[in-house]
Structures are given as structure tokens and as C-alpha cells.
């Protein structure tokens, strides 16, 4: 059989020829002489119109009753219909019902709200919007691998189960084999994790960065692409408890190299989807986010802005705008600030660098001012932060001092400290939130609608 995507893209090659397709009924209406079925096979968010006639197929009465969601095999002739809405249709010669469907199928022909579709995450891939979203998600994953592989980066699989908290934010999902209703305790009353399966306290990873650093100091250029988990209770449209992250890590690189790589990667991804998913992008442009394609096209051909945190704070103060969360040097930038900077001031992606050390993680390289660290966040219009990165602290003594300040125990990070002892050259990396880049290129406004099975506080149905 042939994919519907192929029929749309190469219609000329199939005109007036016999084709065989398989898919599911989206709609079916008929009179007593002929009928129309919209058939979708998932290869494309658009369906194909099947025309069947009393005189053309032997089981007309049965096909006329084929319900929505039934699976069909259709053999017929592709006929161009230049004057109609669809560029072609298929005149059926044979239609076989391969699977029926119950009448209470929830996805009827009308437009459903995204909220309703979230409740049926197992069926929503069958709707046009989610067909387009998840195909683009797949393509972007491929583009990212291609971007790094073309430059000889090594793909590293970092652990999902880990004994260290990379971000130091305490937002880890614990995993344990201990009976937590009645856990074994040490003499001083603490839970005795030495009796746990792993012999210590472990969690799901919040980031593969620390492990990626070990590989960067062997391979120079590496990247991870895997699931990460955060038990942050922020019920926003941009946070999920389980999300995917891409974390390149590059030895002999500084903060500027890091931003150059991130900018090239974002442009590569955008270029790739515009090139390889033109129909899906057209769909988002028409139905999800008007002007999306123009905006994305502009991004490829212009430099991203780069400003320091201190400059960002000045710009926010000078704006005279009343923010819900007041601005002063030292605050962590909130979504409203991030969006103001990218949407109102620059109207394009902006790197913000050199944040106060107090609001960033222990591994970031301390700047000469002793107040800020060599961090870079990438903020984009519509979404806010999509990348967080930094140059890493490669100086053993400075790192130790920083960890002391934060109450981190050196012995817990002994392997990480070793990297600073043996050829610990300067290095840098960043984390791209995979769902955030999907939101950015599709215009979808909620992270729950770009994750196949979103995990957010109080939701893990599947
Ligand atoms: O800024 P974050 O926390 O940085 C790190 O984890 C570093 N270890 C990355 C590195 O330098 N290798 O997270 C990186 C990105 C964010 O910019 C955001 O896009 C995404 O991950 N992210 C989330 N996406 C969805 N839901 C959440 N709860 C997210 N938390 C972070
Ligand atoms: Mg961040």
C-alpha cells in the first residue's frame, strides 16, 4: 500500500492510476447511489476523499454503514479534482473493512477543544492537530541528532537513576526499595539508605550534565538526548514533571562558543522543519499561530541578541512597566520579565548571560567580579526560557569553595572533582528543553499538547 502523504506530494505520478491505501475512517456520508469517506492513515494530517458507488463496489450497503474510526483497505483510481477543495480523490473499486469501531467513539467530526483532547491522550494522535504536532516532534528529534552527528559529536546515554542532584534544587523524584511506611533507621534516626537496593539514596535524574561532562573530557564534543524528571510543583503551561532534554557539552569551549553552538542549533532545527514539514508548518500557521512561518523565517536570517543579566535588569527598570514581580538586581527573572525582554524589547531570541551566582547552580564558572557566573539562558518570544547553559567551573579550588558555600559535600561528588584534577580544561554546555523547542516551532501554547503522554502534578493516567 501507499502512504497518503506520498499521494499528496507526488499526485502527478499517481493520476489516473490504481492505488491501494489503508487507514481509518474520519467521516462517512452517503446517499443510496454513492458515498464519500474521508480516510486518514497517519502519514499526513490531511485525509483522502474516497468516492464509492453502488455500481462501483460490490459491498456498497456495508461500506455505507462503516463507522468513524473503522479501519479500511481501499483499492481504486486516483482522479484529479482541480475544481474541488481537495486536489484529488479516489474512485473505489474495492473496499474492505479490516476492523470495525464502536459507535461511542469520542472523536467525532466536530472541532474538539485541546482540553478535552488531553483527557483522551490515547486517541488524540488521531486528530489533525496532534497528527501534525507529533510528526514535527519526531522530525525535530531527528534534526537534532543530525545537527550534532554532522559535527562529529558523540551521543552519550546518561543514567536515569542517579545518586546526585545536578541542579541542587531538591526537585528530585526519589526511588527506593525501602518500605517507606516503616523504613529502617540509623542510630541518629535518619532513614538508613544503606539497606536500599542501590545502597544509597537515589532519584530520577534532573539532568545528564554532570555525567556528560565526564564524557566531554574524553571525547571533546558530546551530547545527551534523554528524559529528565523534576518534582517542581509549578502548574504552568511550560513545566512538566517528565520532559526531554538535549545537553551538549564541549571541552576547550567558553561561554561564547557555547552560545554560538546553541544559536546554530536552533537555526538548524527551524530550517529543518520548514524544509521537511512544510504542510504541517502551513497548518500551524493557519490554525494555531498566525504569522508563525514568517517569524521563524526571520529568526534564521538574523543574529540572536546577547545581553548580560545586569543589562537585562537595567532594561526592565528603564521600561517603566509595572511587573507583578518587582525588578531589582539579584532577582531570578520571572516569565513576565523574560517575555517582556524578548517580545517587547528585542522581538527575537535573546541570550542573557552572567547571572548572579546566588540564583544559579554550583557548577557554573565564577566570573572575575566574584558576583556573577558565566551562565547563558536563551529566551524566545512566546515561550520564554528554552535553553539554560554555562561555562563550567574547571578550577578545583574555586569549585570546592563554591560547594562549601552551598553545603554540598565534596565526597558526594568525588568523581566530578576528579575531572578537575586530570586534564580539567575549560568546558561549557547547555540544556535545551525539547518540549519548549517543539512549542516554539509549532506555536502550541501548552507543554501538555506537545508531550505524547504528559506528566504534570496530579496527572499520569497512562
Ligand atoms: O535550565 P535548566 O534547569 O538547566 C539544566 O538542567 C542544566 N544542567 C543544563 C546544562 O547546562 N546541561 O534546564 C534546561 C532546560 C530549560 O531551559 C528548559 O527549556 C527545560 O530544560 N526545562 C523544562 N522543560 C519542561 N518542564 C520543566 N519542568 C523544565 N525544567 C527545565
Ligand atoms: Mg534554567
Automatic annotation (TrEMBL):
Organism name: Aminipila luticellarii
Every Aminoacyl-transfer RNA synthetases class-II family profile domain range: 134-452
Assembly mode: Homodimer.
GO molecular function: asparagine-tRNA ligase activity; ATP binding; catalytic activity, acting on a protein; nucleic acid binding; transferase activity
Subcellular compartments: Cytoplasm
Domain of life: Bacteria
Family: Belongs to the class-II aminoacyl-tRNA synthetase family.
InterPro entries listed in its UniProt record: Aa-tRNA-synt_II (IPR004364), aa-tRNA-synth_II (IPR006195), aa-tRNA-synth_II/BPL/LPL (IPR045864), Asn-tRNA-ligase (IPR004522), Asp/Asn-tRNA-synth_IIb (IPR002312), NA-bd_OB-fold (IPR012340), NA-bd_OB_tRNA (IPR004365)
Lineage, uppermost ranks: Bacteria, Bacillati, Bacillota, Clostridia, Peptostreptococcales
Position of the signal peptide: none
Keyword Iron in record: no
Record gene name: asnS
Alphabetic keyword roster: Aminoacyl-tRNA synthetase, ATP-binding, Cytoplasm, Ligase, Nucleotide-binding, Protein biosynthesis
Leading EC class: ligase
NCBIfam families: asnS, PRK03932.1
Protein name: Asparagine--tRNA ligase
Gene3D superfamilies noted in UniProt: Bira Bifunctional Protein, Domain 2, Nucleic acid-binding proteins
Catalysed reactions listed for this entry: tRNA(Asn) + L-asparagine + ATP = L-asparaginyl-tRNA(Asn) + AMP + diphosphate + H(+)
Gene Ontology CC entries for this record: cytoplasm
UniProt key word Iron-sulfur: no
EC number, as in UniProt: 6.1.1.22
GO biological process, one term: asparaginyl-tRNA aminoacylation
